[in-house]
Amino acid sequence: MARPEVKRIALLGGESSGKTTLAQALAEQLHTRWVPEYGRQRWEEVRHTLDPDELLEVAQRQVQMEDEAAARAADDGARWLVCDTTPLTTLQYCLHDFGDAPTELQALARRAYDLTAVCEPDFAFVQDGCRRDDHFRAEQHAWTLAQLAARGMAWFAVTGSVPHRVEQVLQRMAAHAAEPVVTEESP
After folding, report:
1. Residues 6+ apart with CB under 8 A from 68
2. How far is Cα 11 from Cα 22, in angstroms, rounded to an integer?
3. Terminal CA-to-CA distance of the chain, rounded, Å?
């Protein structure tokens, strides 16, 4: 029996915009897996600004973790996988800190997702010792929106409390499921 296709929900937004909290809540609601942000994990391990080659490795590992989690989710019978960030975020750090990025990282940042939610920074910034500051969060948010627009990637904003954000994503998932499938044979 073939595995069911596992669709991916990408969560984007600046630091302290609720991505991880939303990823965990969505995974619980959907009875599926979520993929944590590997870049944060790596930074916590080394505690220094990652150079472009390290950031490329972060993006590659993020994609590998997604693919592994999608396979496990399919084995579990789940239909969705929640991704707490994408290589687009890793690209943003590389460009911000170094002004350029490896070609491979730029290619990984074009990775497509079935749904992309952008977490609005609509609550007070929370410093956890890993994050930069609220000004950087605002820059990240604006950069993310500009990049999604420039790349022609569809996205939607999520706002408010965690339950409200979960409900917004679930509504988009339902609308996504209702969209007609377009194939090359379709008129």
Report:
1. none
2. 8
3. 31
